[in-house]
Specification:
mainly alpha, 14 helices
Length: 356
């Protein structure tokens, strides 16, 4: 009997290890797969590239004043997002502090550099830890926020395409280039990269849906989640919400557009050209890689080439701009986390009356 008990207990202990190993493997894959996907695309893009050209451009040709001028708009985009998020929480009876909401956004973007999209859950955890706002309620408002942002991107995309139709027409008439010839510049490998990105995006959506179903089976949790989703109908000031939304996407665009003036090859491009590259890049970051690394480089580089920028110059542009903007995200994340550590969590009973 003793031996049987020992064997059974051993078996139970061994079985108890498997879920732990499974979770560790899942977490490892969430980190490795996005890194591998982004790294593979970057390797393909920069294979055989002379990186000395980047060093020469950065040290001797690049106008860093324009880059510095662009950085504040990267900050304001996240600040506006934090303020808008705070506004959507009020209709469901939750009142986050401004500083907590904004710092949560800073940490959100920095965390997503490690595990894409994980920051959305982290920022909800920040509000729960510091301002005692239920996780599923705040997560519901995040779902609404992403839906609004997707709608904005679709609207900007449609407007951009309509604005650029005359340009495309003049381009085809003047050069005699047909659409099939233009697409011919998109290599077989380019099509493969695009297909891989689409597949990765579909897999991400499938995993997130699965996690939502698994994590919110409890009836009360689902109700709180839905309450957060529909919070937009009862916001205090729709005008202010629109201003925040315009502030977010206006800041994103200026943050990107000003970098065009840092480089001789892109400084002469029109604002509409920058808008096209911005829209394409915004869609590309849906692909689950750290800060869109790889897909963003590929899509923006492709658009710059179509607008007449030389290939090496386009490669320099996307690598330098993305690297600097990623460093800004990391810096803001560190600042946000330090600020949170220095912030005293609210007492449970004071949350409902907080308006700071």
């Amino acid at each position: 009997m003793k031996r049987l008990t020992f064997v059974c207990s051993n078996k139970e202990s061994v079985m108890s290890i498997f879920p732990v190993k499974s979770k560790m493997a899942e977490r490892t894959m969430k980190v490795l797969l996005p890194l591998l996907l982004g790294g593979a695309i970057l390797y393909w893009m920069y294979r055989g590239f002379d990186f000395g050209l980047i060093r020469h451009t950065v040290l001797h040709e690049m106008n860093w004043w324009w880059m510095l001028a662009s950085l504040p708009f990267g900050v304001t985009a996240q600040v506006f997002r934090g303020l808008r998020w705070r506004q959507t929480l009020s209709p469901i009876g939750e009142h986050a502090r401004r500083t907590t909401a904004v710092n949560a956004i800073f940490v959100n973007y920095a965390t997503s550099l490690v595990i894409p999209r994980s920051g959305e859950f982290v920022r909800c955890g920040v509000l729960k830890r510091w301002d005692h706002i239920p996780f599923v309620k705040s997560l519901g408002t995040v779902v609404t926020e992403r839906a609004v942002d997707s709608l904005v991107v679709l609207m900007v995309t449609a407007i951009t395409l309509l604005m650029q139709l005359p340009m495309f027409h003049r381009f085809f008439v003047t050069t005699g280039v047909h659409l099939d010839q233009l697409l011919g510049r998109f290599t077989t490998t380019g099509y493969i990269v695009t297909l891989i990105c689409l597949i990765a995006t579909i897999i991400l959506a499938w995993v997130l849906v699965g996690q939502m179903r698994l994590g919110h089976r409890v009836k009360d949790a689902a109700a709180h989640l839905w309450q957060g989703v529909v919070s937009l109908r009862h916001i205090d000031s729709p005008t202010l919400y629109i201003i925040y939304t315009l502030g977010i996407w206006g800041s994103y665009f200026v943050h990107f557009h000003l970098t065009f003036y840092c480089f001789e090859d892109t400084a002469s491009l029109s604002i509409s050209s920058a808008l096209v590259a911005f829209v394409v890049g915004s869609i590309a970051v849906i692909v689950p890689t750290p800060n869109g690394a790889g897909p963003w480089h590929f899509s923006v580089k492709t658009m710059l080439i179509l607008y007449g920028v030389e290939s090496n110059a386009a490669l320099v542009f996307v690598l330098v701009v993305h690297t600097v903007q990623t460093f800004l995200v990391v810096l803001l994340g560190i600042m946000g986390w330090i600020s949170l550590l220095l912030t005293r969590p609210l007492k449970q009973e004071t949350n409902d009356t907080t308006t700071r």
